[in-house]
Amino acid sequence: MQHPENDEAYKGLTVNKGIDQPTTVNPYLKLRKKTKRRQFTVDEYVDGIVKGDVTVLSQAVTLVESLRPEHQALAQEVIEKCLPYSGNSLRVGISGVPGAGKSTSIDAFGLHVLSEYGGKLAVLAIDPSSERSKGSILGDKTRMEKLSVHPDAFIRPSPAAGSLGGVARKTRETIILCEAAGFDKIFVETVGVGQSETAVHSMVDFFLLIQLAGTGDELQGIKRGIMEMADGIVINKADGNNIEKAKLAASHFRNALHLFPAPESGWTPQVLTYSGFYNLGIKEIWDMVYKYVDFVKTNGYFNYRRNEQAKYWMYETINEHLRDSFYNNPVISSLIPGTEQEVLGGRTTSFTAARKLLDTYFKECLIAQKE
Ligand code: GDP
Protein backbone atom coordinates (compact mmCIF):
# COMPACT_ATOMS: atom_id res chain seq x y z
CA MET A 1 0.00 0.00 0.00
CA GLN A 2 1.20 3.46 -0.92
CA HIS A 3 2.27 5.53 2.08
CA PRO A 4 0.27 8.77 2.12
CA GLU A 5 3.44 10.83 2.39
CA ASN A 6 4.60 9.49 -0.97
CA ASP A 7 1.48 10.71 -2.73
CA GLU A 8 1.99 13.61 -5.06
CA ALA A 9 -0.95 15.43 -3.58
CA TYR A 10 0.62 15.26 -0.11
CA LYS A 11 1.25 18.75 1.19
CA GLY A 12 2.88 17.90 4.48
CA LEU A 13 6.27 19.26 3.54
CA THR A 14 5.31 22.29 1.53
CA VAL A 15 5.64 25.54 3.34
CA ASN A 16 2.61 27.75 3.10
CA LYS A 17 3.08 31.42 2.55
CA GLY A 18 1.58 32.26 5.87
CA ILE A 19 0.05 35.43 7.12
CA ASP A 20 1.44 38.35 9.04
CA GLN A 21 1.43 37.69 12.70
CA PRO A 22 0.03 40.34 14.98
CA THR A 23 2.51 41.81 17.41
CA THR A 24 2.76 39.98 20.69
CA VAL A 25 2.90 43.28 22.53
CA ASN A 26 -0.44 44.70 23.51
CA PRO A 27 -0.69 47.92 21.42
CA TYR A 28 -2.83 49.54 24.07
CA LEU A 29 -0.24 48.98 26.75
CA LYS A 30 1.51 52.25 25.93
CA LEU A 31 -1.68 54.12 26.57
CA ARG A 32 -1.89 52.81 30.08
CA LYS A 33 -0.36 54.99 32.73
CA LYS A 34 2.61 53.41 34.36
CA THR A 35 1.28 53.21 37.86
CA LYS A 36 3.09 50.84 40.11
CA ARG A 37 0.74 49.24 42.60
CA ARG A 38 1.14 51.10 45.81
CA GLN A 39 2.51 49.00 48.63
CA PHE A 40 0.06 48.82 51.53
CA THR A 41 1.20 49.86 54.95
CA VAL A 42 1.21 47.32 57.77
CA ASP A 43 -2.02 48.74 59.17
CA GLU A 44 -3.71 48.69 55.77
CA TYR A 45 -2.79 45.04 55.38
CA VAL A 46 -4.05 44.18 58.84
CA ASP A 47 -7.30 46.15 58.44
CA GLY A 48 -8.02 44.53 55.09
CA ILE A 49 -7.27 41.05 56.39
CA VAL A 50 -9.35 41.43 59.54
CA LYS A 51 -12.24 42.70 57.42
CA GLY A 52 -11.98 39.49 55.40
CA ASP A 53 -10.84 41.18 52.18
CA VAL A 54 -9.52 38.29 50.12
CA THR A 55 -7.57 40.52 47.73
CA VAL A 56 -5.61 42.03 50.60
CA LEU A 57 -5.18 38.57 52.11
CA SER A 58 -3.74 37.26 48.82
CA GLN A 59 -1.32 40.13 48.62
CA ALA A 60 -0.22 39.57 52.19
CA VAL A 61 0.40 35.90 51.42
CA THR A 62 2.50 36.94 48.44
CA LEU A 63 4.48 39.11 50.81
CA VAL A 64 5.00 36.16 53.15
CA GLU A 65 6.26 34.11 50.21
CA SER A 66 8.58 36.82 48.91
CA LEU A 67 12.29 36.30 49.30
CA ARG A 68 13.08 40.00 49.46
CA PRO A 69 14.24 41.03 52.95
CA GLU A 70 12.10 44.20 53.01
CA HIS A 71 9.00 42.13 52.15
CA GLN A 72 9.93 39.63 54.81
CA ALA A 73 10.22 42.36 57.42
CA LEU A 74 6.86 43.82 56.44
CA ALA A 75 5.27 40.37 56.41
CA GLN A 76 6.52 39.67 59.93
CA GLU A 77 4.92 42.87 61.20
CA VAL A 78 1.64 42.00 59.53
CA ILE A 79 1.69 38.48 60.96
CA GLU A 80 2.50 39.76 64.42
CA LYS A 81 -0.50 42.11 64.32
CA CYS A 82 -2.77 39.40 62.95
CA LEU A 83 -1.78 36.95 65.66
CA PRO A 84 -4.41 38.13 68.19
CA TYR A 85 -7.13 37.42 65.60
CA SER A 86 -5.84 33.97 64.74
CA GLY A 87 -6.06 30.52 66.27
CA ASN A 88 -9.79 30.17 66.16
CA SER A 89 -10.03 27.46 63.57
CA LEU A 90 -9.92 23.78 62.84
CA ARG A 91 -6.71 22.88 61.03
CA VAL A 92 -6.68 19.60 59.16
CA GLY A 93 -3.71 18.09 57.36
CA ILE A 94 -4.54 15.95 54.35
CA SER A 95 -1.90 13.69 52.92
CA GLY A 96 -1.73 10.95 50.32
CA VAL A 97 0.49 9.79 47.49
CA PRO A 98 -0.06 11.35 44.05
CA GLY A 99 -3.14 9.79 42.54
CA ALA A 100 -4.67 8.90 45.90
CA GLY A 101 -7.42 11.37 45.12
CA LYS A 102 -6.48 14.35 47.29
CA SER A 103 -7.81 17.02 44.97
CA THR A 104 -11.03 15.15 44.28
CA SER A 105 -11.47 14.47 47.98
CA ILE A 106 -10.66 18.00 49.12
CA ASP A 107 -13.27 19.27 46.69
CA ALA A 108 -15.84 16.94 48.22
CA PHE A 109 -14.66 17.47 51.82
CA GLY A 110 -14.69 21.23 51.39
CA LEU A 111 -18.22 21.36 50.04
CA HIS A 112 -19.38 19.06 52.81
CA VAL A 113 -17.88 21.01 55.71
CA LEU A 114 -19.04 24.34 54.30
CA SER A 115 -22.62 23.17 53.85
CA GLU A 116 -22.74 21.21 57.10
CA TYR A 117 -20.82 23.53 59.43
CA GLY A 118 -20.84 26.90 57.62
CA GLY A 119 -17.92 29.28 58.03
CA LYS A 120 -15.07 29.76 55.59
CA LEU A 121 -12.44 27.35 54.33
CA ALA A 122 -8.85 27.97 53.24
CA VAL A 123 -6.98 25.24 51.37
CA LEU A 124 -3.20 25.55 51.53
CA ALA A 125 -0.48 23.20 50.42
CA ILE A 126 3.05 22.16 51.18
CA ASP A 127 5.02 20.76 48.32
CA PRO A 128 8.71 21.58 48.66
CA SER A 129 9.62 19.24 45.81
CA SER A 130 7.63 21.17 43.29
CA GLU A 131 9.64 22.88 40.62
CA ARG A 132 6.33 23.22 38.86
CA SER A 133 5.29 25.75 41.42
CA LYS A 134 3.24 28.85 40.84
CA GLY A 135 -0.07 27.15 41.00
CA SER A 136 0.33 24.21 38.74
CA ILE A 137 0.50 21.47 41.29
CA LEU A 138 -1.01 21.17 44.76
CA GLY A 139 -3.86 23.52 45.39
CA ASP A 140 -4.27 24.13 41.71
CA LYS A 141 -7.67 25.62 41.22
CA THR A 142 -8.59 23.49 38.26
CA ARG A 143 -8.11 20.42 40.38
CA MET A 144 -10.74 21.54 42.86
CA GLU A 145 -13.39 22.63 40.47
CA LYS A 146 -16.33 23.19 42.76
CA LEU A 147 -14.43 24.57 45.69
CA SER A 148 -12.49 27.03 43.56
CA VAL A 149 -15.70 28.85 42.65
CA HIS A 150 -17.21 28.65 46.13
CA PRO A 151 -17.58 32.12 47.65
CA ASP A 152 -16.44 30.91 51.09
CA ALA A 153 -13.33 29.08 49.95
CA PHE A 154 -9.81 30.38 49.45
CA ILE A 155 -7.36 28.12 47.64
CA ARG A 156 -3.67 28.87 47.64
CA PRO A 157 -1.05 26.60 46.06
CA SER A 158 2.19 25.65 47.74
CA PRO A 159 4.80 28.38 48.03
CA ALA A 160 7.45 27.99 45.34
CA ALA A 161 10.02 25.26 45.74
CA GLY A 162 12.58 25.79 48.43
CA SER A 163 13.80 24.11 51.57
CA LEU A 164 11.09 22.15 53.31
CA GLY A 165 11.59 24.26 56.42
CA GLY A 166 11.14 27.45 54.44
CA VAL A 167 8.08 26.27 52.55
CA ALA A 168 6.49 24.92 55.71
CA ARG A 169 7.14 28.12 57.64
CA LYS A 170 5.45 30.15 54.93
CA THR A 171 2.43 27.89 55.03
CA ARG A 172 2.24 28.17 58.77
CA GLU A 173 2.38 31.95 58.56
CA THR A 174 -0.29 31.88 55.88
CA ILE A 175 -2.52 29.92 58.26
CA ILE A 176 -2.30 32.81 60.73
CA LEU A 177 -3.27 35.34 58.06
CA CYS A 178 -6.18 33.20 56.85
CA GLU A 179 -7.48 32.75 60.36
CA ALA A 180 -7.31 36.48 60.99
CA ALA A 181 -9.34 36.91 57.79
CA GLY A 182 -12.09 34.75 59.31
CA PHE A 183 -11.25 31.39 57.76
CA ASP A 184 -12.25 29.00 60.51
CA LYS A 185 -11.41 25.82 58.63
CA ILE A 186 -7.97 25.27 57.20
CA PHE A 187 -6.92 22.30 55.09
CA VAL A 188 -3.22 21.79 54.51
CA GLU A 189 -2.56 19.39 51.68
CA THR A 190 0.68 17.56 51.11
CA VAL A 191 2.00 14.83 48.87
CA GLY A 192 2.48 11.75 50.98
CA VAL A 193 5.95 10.89 49.94
CA GLY A 194 8.27 11.93 52.70
CA GLN A 195 9.31 14.56 55.14
CA SER A 196 6.56 17.02 54.36
CA GLU A 197 4.08 15.04 56.47
CA THR A 198 6.08 15.82 59.58
CA ALA A 199 5.92 19.50 58.71
CA VAL A 200 2.17 19.36 58.11
CA HIS A 201 1.62 17.34 61.26
CA SER A 202 3.38 20.06 63.20
CA MET A 203 0.82 22.68 62.18
CA VAL A 204 -2.55 20.90 62.21
CA ASP A 205 -5.04 19.63 64.77
CA PHE A 206 -6.03 16.54 62.84
CA PHE A 207 -3.92 14.58 60.40
CA LEU A 208 -5.88 12.68 57.78
CA LEU A 209 -4.09 10.10 55.69
CA ILE A 210 -5.67 9.12 52.37
CA GLN A 211 -4.84 5.61 51.25
CA LEU A 212 -5.83 3.33 48.41
CA ALA A 213 -6.68 -0.32 48.48
CA GLY A 214 -3.99 -2.02 46.52
CA THR A 215 -2.73 -5.49 46.07
CA GLY A 216 -2.90 -6.36 49.74
CA ASP A 217 0.61 -5.27 50.49
CA GLU A 218 -0.25 -1.58 50.77
CA LEU A 219 0.97 -1.49 54.34
CA GLN A 220 4.53 -2.09 53.23
CA GLY A 221 4.47 0.96 51.03
CA ILE A 222 3.81 3.52 53.70
CA LYS A 223 6.26 4.52 56.28
CA ARG A 224 5.52 3.55 59.81
CA GLY A 225 6.21 7.10 60.94
CA ILE A 226 3.52 8.53 58.69
CA MET A 227 0.94 6.02 59.88
CA GLU A 228 1.79 6.80 63.45
CA MET A 229 1.05 10.46 62.86
CA ALA A 230 -2.40 9.81 61.44
CA ASP A 231 -5.47 10.62 63.54
CA GLY A 232 -7.59 9.06 60.82
CA ILE A 233 -6.83 6.84 57.85
CA VAL A 234 -9.33 6.91 55.02
CA ILE A 235 -9.33 4.51 52.10
CA ASN A 236 -10.48 6.30 48.96
CA LYS A 237 -12.09 4.96 45.79
CA ALA A 238 -14.36 2.57 47.69
CA ASP A 239 -16.76 2.45 44.76
CA GLY A 240 -17.77 0.03 42.00
CA ASN A 241 -16.01 -3.29 42.30
CA ASN A 242 -13.37 -1.76 44.52
CA ILE A 243 -15.59 -1.71 47.61
CA GLU A 244 -14.61 -5.12 48.97
CA LYS A 245 -10.92 -4.46 48.40
CA ALA A 246 -11.21 -1.15 50.22
CA LYS A 247 -12.91 -2.82 53.18
CA LEU A 248 -10.20 -5.44 53.30
CA ALA A 249 -7.50 -2.77 53.21
CA ALA A 250 -9.29 -0.96 56.03
CA SER A 251 -9.17 -4.05 58.21
CA HIS A 252 -5.45 -4.46 57.44
CA PHE A 253 -4.84 -0.88 58.53
CA ARG A 254 -6.89 -1.36 61.70
CA ASN A 255 -4.84 -4.41 62.60
CA ALA A 256 -1.60 -2.61 61.88
CA LEU A 257 -2.61 0.35 64.03
CA HIS A 258 -3.09 -1.96 66.99
CA LEU A 259 0.62 -2.68 66.90
CA PHE A 260 1.54 0.94 67.47
CA PRO A 261 1.80 2.50 70.91
CA ALA A 262 -1.32 4.43 71.95
CA PRO A 263 -1.16 8.04 70.70
CA GLU A 264 -0.48 10.82 73.18
CA SER A 265 -3.90 12.32 72.51
CA GLY A 266 -5.68 9.31 73.99
CA TRP A 267 -7.66 9.08 70.75
CA THR A 268 -7.79 5.80 68.86
CA PRO A 269 -7.14 6.52 65.18
CA GLN A 270 -10.09 5.46 63.03
CA VAL A 271 -9.99 3.78 59.65
CA LEU A 272 -12.84 4.44 57.21
CA THR A 273 -13.57 3.79 53.55
CA TYR A 274 -15.10 6.35 51.19
CA SER A 275 -15.34 7.57 47.64
CA GLY A 276 -14.38 11.16 46.98
CA PHE A 277 -15.50 10.96 43.40
CA TYR A 278 -18.96 9.50 44.09
CA ASN A 279 -19.42 11.37 47.36
CA LEU A 280 -19.85 8.29 49.51
CA GLY A 281 -18.85 8.14 53.15
CA ILE A 282 -17.79 11.80 53.32
CA LYS A 283 -20.12 12.63 56.19
CA GLU A 284 -18.70 9.79 58.29
CA ILE A 285 -15.18 11.15 57.83
CA TRP A 286 -16.15 14.61 59.06
CA ASP A 287 -18.23 13.23 61.90
CA MET A 288 -15.03 11.48 62.95
CA VAL A 289 -12.94 14.66 62.69
CA TYR A 290 -15.40 16.67 64.77
CA LYS A 291 -15.71 13.86 67.29
CA TYR A 292 -11.94 13.95 67.63
CA VAL A 293 -12.02 17.70 68.18
CA ASP A 294 -14.61 17.33 70.95
CA PHE A 295 -12.55 14.57 72.48
CA VAL A 296 -9.25 16.45 72.56
CA LYS A 297 -10.82 19.74 73.59
CA THR A 298 -12.33 17.96 76.56
CA ASN A 299 -9.15 16.23 77.64
CA GLY A 300 -6.96 19.30 77.06
CA TYR A 301 -4.85 17.77 74.32
CA PHE A 302 -6.05 20.27 71.70
CA ASN A 303 -4.44 23.23 73.44
CA TYR A 304 -1.46 21.21 74.55
CA ARG A 305 -0.72 20.23 70.94
CA ARG A 306 -1.07 23.80 69.70
CA ASN A 307 1.34 25.01 72.37
CA GLU A 308 3.81 22.29 71.54
CA GLN A 309 3.54 23.28 67.88
CA ALA A 310 4.21 26.93 68.68
CA LYS A 311 7.31 25.87 70.58
CA TYR A 312 8.39 23.58 67.75
CA TRP A 313 8.09 26.45 65.25
CA MET A 314 10.12 28.76 67.40
CA TYR A 315 13.01 26.28 67.34
CA GLU A 316 12.49 25.50 63.68
CA THR A 317 12.72 29.19 62.84
CA ILE A 318 15.87 29.61 64.91
CA ASN A 319 17.44 26.60 63.22
CA GLU A 320 16.50 27.81 59.79
CA HIS A 321 17.90 31.29 60.37
CA LEU A 322 21.12 29.98 61.85
CA ARG A 323 21.62 27.61 58.96
CA ASP A 324 20.90 30.30 56.38
CA SER A 325 23.14 32.79 58.10
CA PHE A 326 25.96 30.22 58.25
CA TYR A 327 25.78 28.95 54.69
CA ASN A 328 25.13 32.37 53.17
CA ASN A 329 28.12 33.89 54.91
CA PRO A 330 30.54 34.74 52.06
CA VAL A 331 33.66 33.65 53.96
CA ILE A 332 32.08 30.32 54.89
CA SER A 333 30.78 29.61 51.42
CA SER A 334 34.22 30.27 49.98
CA LEU A 335 35.84 27.91 52.51
CA ILE A 336 33.36 25.06 52.17
CA PRO A 337 34.52 23.47 48.88
CA GLY A 338 38.15 23.22 50.01
CA THR A 339 37.22 21.93 53.44
CA GLU A 340 34.99 19.32 51.89
CA GLN A 341 37.89 18.11 49.75
CA GLU A 342 40.11 17.84 52.84
CA VAL A 343 37.50 15.64 54.51
CA LEU A 344 37.07 13.55 51.38
CA GLY A 345 40.85 13.17 51.02
CA GLY A 346 41.16 12.02 54.62
CA ARG A 347 43.39 14.98 55.52
CA THR A 348 41.10 16.08 58.30
CA THR A 349 38.21 14.58 60.19
CA SER A 350 34.61 15.67 59.68
CA PHE A 351 34.52 16.87 63.24
CA THR A 352 37.63 19.06 63.00
CA ALA A 353 36.49 20.49 59.67
CA ALA A 354 33.08 21.39 61.08
CA ARG A 355 34.66 22.91 64.17
CA LYS A 356 37.00 25.06 62.08
CA LEU A 357 34.19 26.34 59.89
CA LEU A 358 32.04 27.11 62.91
CA ASP A 359 34.90 28.94 64.65
CA THR A 360 35.46 30.99 61.51
CA TYR A 361 31.77 31.76 61.35
CA PHE A 362 31.58 32.93 64.95
CA LYS A 363 34.64 35.15 64.41
CA GLU A 364 33.00 36.58 61.30
CA CYS A 365 29.91 37.36 63.35
CA LEU A 366 31.99 39.22 65.94
CA ILE A 367 33.74 41.24 63.24
CA ALA A 368 30.41 42.10 61.65
CA GLN A 369 29.09 43.21 65.03
CA LYS A 370 32.00 45.58 65.62
CA GLU A 371 31.67 47.23 62.22
P1 GDP B 1 -4.27 13.52 43.75
O1 GDP B 1 -3.09 13.37 42.84
O2 GDP B 1 -4.05 12.80 45.03
O3 GDP B 1 -4.71 14.94 43.94
O4 GDP B 1 -5.48 12.74 43.05
P2 GDP B 1 -6.68 13.24 42.13
O5 GDP B 1 -7.76 13.84 42.96
O6 GDP B 1 -6.15 14.05 41.02
O7 GDP B 1 -7.24 11.86 41.59
C1 GDP B 1 -6.45 10.97 40.84
C2 GDP B 1 -7.35 10.11 39.96
O8 GDP B 1 -8.19 9.30 40.77
C3 GDP B 1 -8.29 10.95 39.11
O9 GDP B 1 -8.39 10.33 37.85
C4 GDP B 1 -9.61 10.88 39.83
O10 GDP B 1 -10.73 11.01 38.98
C5 GDP B 1 -9.55 9.49 40.45
N1 GDP B 1 -10.35 9.43 41.69
C6 GDP B 1 -10.31 10.31 42.72
N2 GDP B 1 -11.19 9.96 43.67
C7 GDP B 1 -11.81 8.83 43.22
C8 GDP B 1 -12.84 7.99 43.78
O11 GDP B 1 -13.36 8.21 44.85
N3 GDP B 1 -13.18 6.92 43.04
C9 GDP B 1 -12.62 6.64 41.85
N4 GDP B 1 -13.03 5.56 41.21
N5 GDP B 1 -11.68 7.41 41.29
C10 GDP B 1 -11.27 8.49 41.97
Automatic annotation (TrEMBL):
InterPro entries: GTPase_ArgK, P-loop_NTPase
Pfam families hit by this protein: MeaB (PF03308)
Superkingdom as given in the UniProt entry: Bacteria
EC number: 3.6.5.-
UniProt KW keywords: Hydrolase
Segments passing through the bilayer: none
Molecular-function annotations in GO: hydrolase activity
Family as reported in the entry's similarity comment: Belongs to the SIMIBI class G3E GTPase family. ArgK/MeaB subfamily.
Matching PANTHER family: METHYLMALONIC ACIDURIA TYPE A PROTEIN, MITOCHONDRIAL, METHYLMALONYL-COA MUTASE
Protein name: Methylmalonyl Co-A mutase-associated GTPase MeaB
Naturally occurring in which organism (per UniProt): Bacteroides caecicola
Lineage: Bacteria, Pseudomonadati, Bacteroidota, Bacteroidia, Bacteroidales
